[in-house]
Design a protein that fits this description.
Helices cover 20% and strands 31% of the residues. With 576 residues, the chain is α+β, with helices and mostly antiparallel strands. It has two domains: 3-347, Alpha/Beta hydrolase fold, catalytic domain (Rossmann fold, 3-Layer(aba) Sandwich); 371-569, Jelly Rolls, CATH 2.60.120. Strands 18, 19, 20, 22, 25, 27 and 28 form a seven-stranded antiparallel beta sheet that branches. It has a six-stranded mixed beta sheet with strand order 1-2-3-5-4-9. The radius of gyration is 24 Å and the shape is globular. The chain starts with a strand and ends in a 7-residue tail after the last strand.
């Protein structure tokens, strides 16, 4: 039974319509809360949908924003600043997805609820909101991460009253959300299961594994055995547990069982659905979340209607409750939902914050400047140089490291190479590639590369990253200079002792290396659990370590030109 309450936040009074029941076309009802001003009149509505629980989102009224690495930071309070939304004269409607919170129905797998596409439920939800007497018929959406992905699902269904969306930090290609370069990433589990400070999905007993629903018992047994035969999986106790007890962690079981890209991911890939979107879309993402930045750019390029791409400054994680970017959001909705010509559509389509120079570069497209791809070569004595190595392998002996499994050590071995200090500001904007000629003594490993801006005093900031599971080294037809793509549709074991060329995709970035600064790259097969960058990420935001001992040799001689291929802008960067 719904009820109406009044809440006082400082001098502000907020009317709350609590526990509304929103009917779906198949009879299931979703639960929602609506927040608005106390004056009884219709307003535009901003809809937030997720499985994280509307009660958790209400903490935005009482909890001050927490920045990482605060222990109070909770990754799932993402629906926005309720009091601010109400103060801007919108109705803030926060709903629980099917099978979560107080809603009916059940949830199956990822981005699929009870066999019903999430976009279909979003369509029904939005149209119901638009028909309420407290809404004036103009609906937008709000929220980051999962809430952002839901905006794309909703817009792809084209509900008539959804006039525009503002997406911050969404996740799109779900394979790229869970496997970076083919290497499993643990943060999706943290978000879904409440590990390490994330509240997680607000499910009780109404979530079902899609794999358990669609595979025969014999097929499941064979696939589970195959996954347990992977030394990386077998060395990680939590994954062994998940595979033996799938009903305990159904959604994570599905992810672990699908280590290759393909139909299981593509059928629920928002970028595939976004080709039908023609309403105005504003995409915002901060640097330092490489895979997500890549997805925003890919989505921006697919969209057909009015669109904006805003790439903000490092660090990667915003506060919780989420309060950033609201100024931009309200300008967008003031134009599209309230009909106020505030000039937002006269501004450039693409805005990019450049680290180092701290400039904002604008353009009509990504990348916002012309770039020229140039190589920086790995050289002896851990040098990174624009000049290639002239010596052969007999004289330029490979660099190398031996990594023992983290079951027997807590030390992560890291190789590094650095440029000389830049003598003038040097700007790079775009994607990049790392070509590594490597020999390993096992049939697989991880390659994890991180590129840093190192200041004269030794302080540093992460600029971009690249990941590649060695057995996923195949490239596909989309690959161009400095912009590699891997299909990730099959794993091809490495023949131990052979030298292979591995091409890592370096996620998009924008940075000026100031005079006196160095570029440093680090290469490892695992990653340190805590460093300057990882401390800014949510708990468990690391990748599945290699579960076997591996010796790596990195060749960088005349016959094996290991190198970075990077997007240097074609004009000189601004001063310091």
């Amino acid at each position: 039974m719904s009820e109406i309450r009044t809440w006082e936040v400082g001098a502000q009074r907020i009317r709350i319509r609590k526990d509304l029941r929103v009917p779906m076309r198949d009879g299931v009802e979703l639960a929602a809360d609506a927040y608005h001003g106390v004056e009884d009149r219709p307003r535009p509505a901003l809809v937030a949908l997720s499985p994280y629980g509307k009660e958790l989102q209400a903490l935005a009224l009482t909890m001050p924003p927490q920045r990482r690495p605060s222990p109070m930071w909770d990754g799932c309070i993402e629906a926005g600043d309720i009091a601010r939304v109400v103060a801007e004269d919108y109705v803030h409607v926060i709903g629980d997805l099917r099978g979560s919170g107080a809603s009916g129905g059940e949830h199956i797998g990822n981005y699929n609820a009870g066999g019903v596409p999430l976009g279909q439920d979003a369509y029904d939800f939005i149209e119901w909101v638009a028909a309420q007497p407290w809404c004036d018929g103009n609906v937008g959406m709000i929220g980051i991460s999962y809430f952002g992905s839901m905006q794309v699902f909703a817009a792809a269904e084209r509900p008539p009253h959804l006039k525009a969306i503002f997406v911050s930090g969404g996740h799109y290609d779900f394979y790229e959300t869970t496997y970076h370069g083919g290497i499993m990433w643990f943060m999706p589990r943290a978000a879904r299961e409440g590990r390490g400070g994330d509240s997680g999905w607000a499910f009780t007993d109404r979530i079902t594994s899609r794999m358990l629903e669609t595979c025969s018992a014999e097929e499941l047994k064979e696939r589970v055995a195959r996954r347990l035969a992977d030394p990386d999986v077998a060395a990680w106790p939590n994954l062994v547990h998940v595979l033996h007890y799938p009903k305990h962690h159904e959604a994570w079981f599905d992810i672990v069982m699908n280590e290759l890209d393909g139909p299981w991911y593509e059928e629920r890939n928002p970028i595939n659905l976004a080709k039908t979107i023609d309403i105005p879309v504003y995409l915002q993402i901060d640097q330092g979340r490489g895979w997500t930045l890549d997805g925003h750019i890919e989505l921006f390029n697919v969209l057909k209607g009015p669109k904006r791409l805003d790439i903000g400054a490092y660090p990667p994680m915003q506060s919780r409750p989420w309060v950033e970017e609201h100024e931009k959001m309200f300008r967008w909705y003031e134009y599209w939902l309230k009909g106020i010509d505030n000039g937002v559509m006269d501004e450039p389509a693409v805005n990019v914050f450049v680290e180092g120079s701290r400039e904002v570069v604008t353009a009509a497209q990504w990348p916002p400047k012309e770039v020229e791809y140039k190589a920086l070569y790995l050289r002896p004595r851990r040098k990174l140089s624009p000049e290639p190595e002239l010596m052969g392998a007999e004289h330029a002996a490979p660099d190398g490291f031996y990594q023992a499994p983290l079951t027997v050590t807590d030390k992560v071995e890291i190789l590094s190479w650095s440029t000389e200090p830049f003598d003038q500001p040097t700007e790079l904007i775009g994607t990049g590639a790392a070509h590594l000629f490597a020999e390993i003594d096992q049939d697989d490993t991880n390659f994890i590369l991180r590129l840093w801006d190192t200041a004269p005093n030794g302080s540093r900031q992460l600029i971009t990253t690249g990941y590649l599971k060695a057995s996923h080294r195949e490239l596909d037809e989309r690959t161009t200079e400095g912009n590699p793509y891997h299909p990730h549709t099959r794993a091809v074991p490495v023949e131990p002792g052979t030298i292979e060329e591995y091409v890592l995709r370096l996620y998009p970035f924008a940075a000026t290396f100031r005079a006196g600064h160095r570029m440093t790259i680090e290469l490892s097969c695992d990653e340190p659990l805590v460093d300057e960058h990882n401390s800014l990420l949510p708990p468990d935001a690391f990748h599945l370590p290699v579960g076997r001992p591996v010796t790596h040799k990195i060749y960088r001689d005349a016959a094996h030109p290991s190198r970075l291929v990077l997007p240097f802008t074609t004009r000189q960067a601004t001063g310091e």
